[in-house]
């Protein structure tokens, strides 16, 4: 694929994430939305019209469209695996919203198929692509802070009972919707977890209403919480030998990061995000697709595996089981 080729996107889904993705596309060089499909014809039509795309009458029509290079999956988590499988089977590159699947078994099947088809597959995990997060990484290369000794984060938001996050049948719960970000953070700074310990509150619908998770990694531990039943935010704190990094909540949409050094120095990094913020991961994906890559070096398949492994173990310990796991 030529380095200047416009990447033509098909969007599966017409909810909040799909709309924010579409809003981000004008900020991505050489990218456009070609078609939109969603279970709700009215919201799909509205989204398609807003970005000058066609409305696909069926998922199969979206996936079979020869004008489409890549599929962005923004449906509810229980359908991610089926849509990703169908897209990869017809040689479409896939950017799949987090949580990438409902469990590790589904993820492994998708990664195997992506490898067989030699197609690019990436979980849409946006934090590491935000300008200030990348600026933090660049700063640490110039001014290292030593070994990380602890990672803590937390966020909860009181969510209305009719919201899909409360539905067991669509792989909802605070762990899947919010915890995926916290699991990412722990892995990004400490590597895969060697052990997971979780506790939580299971709501009437069968999903976790609140969860606290501790993960043990090779060099340090991480602690975090997620919730749908209350409002609470601890932001994110990364403690190291020579400094402490703090990100206000919700930390996965960062524009300011502060480093407090043990020697008294205070460094504040500030880089406001433009628009919805989805453009940063999308531009990365488009560059990978043009280069012929089948995996992101930032959100690698191993990274997604490690994230899903934490979520699987935490759900199991709390007592949340999805339909396909019973």
UniProtKB/TrEMBL annotation:
Origin superkingdom: Bacteria
Keyword Plastid recorded: no
Ranges in coiled-coil conformation: none
Listed Pfam families: GFO_IDH_MocA, GFO_IDH_MocA_C3
Annotated ranges, domain Gfo/Idh/MocA-like oxidoreductase N-terminal: 7-122
Domain GFO/IDH/MocA-like oxidoreductase: 133-218
GO MF entries: nucleotide binding; oxidoreductase activity
This protein's UniProt keywords: Oxidoreductase
Classification via Gene3D superfamilies: Dihydrodipicolinate Reductase, domain 2 (3.30.360.10), NAD(P)-binding Rossmann-like Domain (3.40.50.720)
SUPFAM superfamilies for the chain: Glyceraldehyde-3-phosphate dehydrogenase-like, C-terminal domain (SSF55347), NAD(P)-binding Rossmann-fold domains (SSF51735)
Family (UniProt): Belongs to the Gfo/Idh/MocA family.
Protein name: Putative dehydrogenase
Organism: Terriglobus roseus (strain DSM 18391 / NRRL B-41598 / KBS 63)
């Amino acid at each position: 694929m030529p380095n200047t080729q416009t990447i033509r996107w098909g969007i599966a889904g017409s909810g909040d994430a799909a709309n924010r993705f579409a809003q981000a596309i004008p900020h991505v060089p050489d990218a456009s939305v070609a078609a939109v499909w969603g279970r709700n014809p009215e919201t799909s039509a509205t989204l398609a019209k807003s970005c000058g795309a066609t409305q696909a009458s069926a998922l199969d029509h979206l996936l079979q469209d020869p004008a489409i290079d890549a599929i962005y999956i923004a449906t509810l988590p229980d359908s991610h695996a089926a849509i990703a499988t169908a897209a990869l089977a017809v040689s479409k590159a896939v950017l799949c919203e987090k949580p990438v699947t409902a469990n590790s078994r589904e993820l492994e099947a998708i990664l195997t198929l992506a490898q067989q088809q030699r197609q690019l597959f990436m979980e849409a995990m946006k934090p590491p692509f935000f300008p200030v997060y990348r600026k933090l990484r660049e700063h640490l290369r110039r001014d290292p802070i030593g070994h990380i000794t602890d990672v803590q984060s937390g966020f909860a938001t009181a969510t209305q009972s009719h919201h899909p996050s409360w539905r067991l049948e669509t792989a909802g719960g605070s762990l899947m919707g919010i915890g995926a970000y916290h699991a990412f953070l722990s892995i990004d700074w400490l590597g895969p977890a060697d052990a997971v310990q979780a506790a939580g509150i299971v709501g009437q619908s069968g999903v976790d209403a609140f969860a606290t998770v501790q993960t043990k990694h090779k060099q340090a531990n991480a602690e975090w919480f997620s919730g749908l039943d209350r409002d609470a935010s601890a932001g994110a704190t990364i403690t190291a030998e020579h400094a402490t990094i703090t990100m206000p909540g919700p930390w996965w949409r960062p524009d300011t990061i502060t480093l407090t050094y043990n020697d008294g120095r205070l460094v504040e990094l500030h880089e406001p995000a433009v628009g919805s913020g989805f453009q940063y991961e999308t531009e990365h994906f488009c560059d990978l697709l043009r280069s012929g890559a089948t995996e992101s070096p930032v959100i690698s398949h191993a990274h997604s595996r490690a994230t899903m492994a934490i979520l699987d173990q935490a759900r199991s310990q709390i007592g949340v089981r999805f339909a396909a796991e019973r």
